[in-house]
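Justification of computing resources. Each target in the renewal requires a structure prediction run like the one illustrated here; the chain below, 167 residues long, is used simply to show the kind of job we budget for.
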Amino acid sequence: MNIIHYDSHFNANEWTVIVSFVVGMLVVLVLPKRFPKKIFAIYLLCGVFFGFFFDHTLSVLPVSFYDLNDSSKVELIDFLSHVMYATYSYIFFYLYDCLKIKPRFSLVYILPWAFISIGLEKVFSLLGVFHYLHGYNIFYSFVIYLVVLSLWVAFYHVIEAYGERKY
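Resulting structure tokens:
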């Protein structure tokens, strides 16, 4: 069993979350506007919602497969780590739209994003953002990323079909 040594200092894990959030937001703000404001906000919120949902589903009792940052308690930096997923989701939707991916080629788009997600999660775990518990490992996350990214593609097509309709 791995023993997790938490720290209580402001160090690599906090800086990783802050830098990821700031760089991600700069990228989102620099990208040319592609969506109406409402849809822009929805695409940002997708990342926050799914990050929050899965982090709190998998990291709280009774399962508690991993902890975020410096302890198993919720801290302010944990909230920012959920918000940093917003830029990730927006860039996913932005590139999907820019590249005009046809639905039958969505898997070709989803797979590289799943591998990028795993790579980022691995770096984040090495920097102390994630601490795996009870036999959880990064390969379980790969399946979660495949599901989430597939849902995002389906959601994108729903938004494209019905997003601007007025009832």
